[in-house]
Amino acid sequence: MTLAAGGSTFSASGPPCYSALVNDWICPAYVSDRRTEIADALLEHVLITLAAVALGFVLALPLALVARRYTAVESAIVAATTIIYTVPSLALFALLVNITALSPWTVIIGLALYTLTILVRNMLAGLRDVPADVKESAVGLGYGPGRLLLRVELPLALPVIMAGLRVATVSTVALTTVGTLVAYGGLGDLLSNGIRTDFKAQILTASVLCVALAVVFDALLMGTQRVLTPWTRGRK
Questions:
Q1: 75-93 pLDDT, tens per residue?
Q2: Do 105 and 14 have their domain in common?
Q3: pLDDT value at position 71?
Q4: 178 Cβ partners below 8 Å, 6+ apart?
Q5: Of 56 and 89, which is predicted with more confidence?
Q6: Which pTM value belongs to this model?
Q7: Does one domain contain both 13 and 61?
Q8: Which of 14, 44, 168, 232 is found 20 to 30 A from 86 (Cα to Cα)?
Q9: Over the stretch 5-38, which tens digit does the pLDDT of each residue have?
């Protein structure tokens, strides 16, 4: 009895659809036989994406607030985040490895830095779109700077901020695959191995799951936005 790819054995009807002799693009047997490996890669991809976007959001908010408060440094902050986004991932990860070693944090921090150019710009745009008369009314009612930000400005800026968050999240899902350069790429590890070995079923499965994951995240964020901003429903 001859072994096929992944350790499965050939059945009486012939080798499985993902064996070296067949190597089909669409192969349910591969998904079934490798479900643990695929699930682990998918979970890693999800966790890295969520951690990177969350860290990026935490970093972007104070940067946007500083840029809005001090116009003299706004150009420097926006330019710095844009420059970071243009740095190739290989070079960025190589720099981070000196600090984080070969760990998931290398990918998480790198991807978080890439989100800044999107998040900072959208946060700035959202905060500046808050009508001046609304802020004046809130100040007249006794709102201090902190309360004004949390209770008035951020809620009204939320649609624009969420739009940026959606773009940042979807792009991070795609960029997480590049983490395979340091062995933490989630589905990117499957994709890279599949390309290297011409393993068609693995390539297609990893690609489809990446696209599906981006769609799911985008739908979840869209639903969250609708829940958090009920006053925008029905607005064209």
A1: 999 999 999 999 998 899 9
A2: no
A3: 85
A4: 89, 93, 107, 185, 188
A5: 56
A6: 0.87
A7: no
A8: 44
A9: 444 444 445 567 877 777 788 888 888 888 999 9
Identify the domain containing residue 149 by its residue range. Answer: 37-232
- The C-alpha atoms of residue 45 and residue 28 are separated, in whole angstroms, by 22
Name the domain count of the chain.
2
| Residues in contact with 90: Cβ distance below 8 Å, sequence separation at least 6, in sequence order | 181
User: What are the phi and psi torsion angles at 139 (to 5°)?
Assistant: -65, -40
Q: Residue 231 and residue 165: Cα distance in Å, rounded?
A: 19
- Cα separation, 177 vs 160, in Å, equals 27
CB 228 within 8 A of CB 158: yes
- CA distances from residue 180 to 47, 123, 176 in whole angstroms, order as listed: 15, 31, 8
The stretch 219-232 carries a mean pLDDT of 87
Q: Whole-angstrom Cα distance, residue 225 to residue 162?
A: 7
Please check whether residue 21 is in contact with residue 5, taking contact to mean a CB–CB distance below 8 angstroms: no
- Residue 158's DSSP bridge partners are none
